[in-house]
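Practice problem: VWFA domain-containing protein
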Amino acid sequence: MSIFGESVEVVHGMGEPWTNEIGASMLAQFDFKQSRTSLIQLLQTSVSLMQAAGEGSASSRGVPASQLLLILSDGVFSEDPLSPALQAAVRLARDHHLFVVCVIIDDSKKKHSIFDLRRYTGQGKLLPYMDVFPLPFYLVLRDVTALPQLLAEALRQWFELASATVGRSGGP
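Answer key — structure tokens:
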């Protein structure tokens, strides 16, 4: 588990045990007060971390392991969603079999929803932000009580995608 903004900091390693105390301690580190939120940095770091974690889990048939990256965020990233550098980072994750799902926490009681945001493109056009959102898979969470159902749906889709990928690769 990591926190990210301008940089990425691992707060709980994948091989470390999980306890209630560790969970509470980690939650205290999430302050959502970063001045910049670099999706490029997050994706590049995640690919490196997941590669290291997945090295021992690749199947004996040579089929690369498919991995799931859940991003909990307000969905607003610093980079231009259409920038070549950001698109390259998204491709890097996909090419390394990393299924990235962004869970956008969008409080419906706020004055401005993620759906109200507009973003200038490199061509000088003003578009709805969600029309140019950089990640192909995302869920918008407006009610925190719906989080378990949303995560279950994300996992279901990941299992379907992973199964289809293994099937095309000649695996089971």
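Discussion: The chain has a mean pLDDT of 78. Students who identified this feature from the tokens alone can consider the problem solved.
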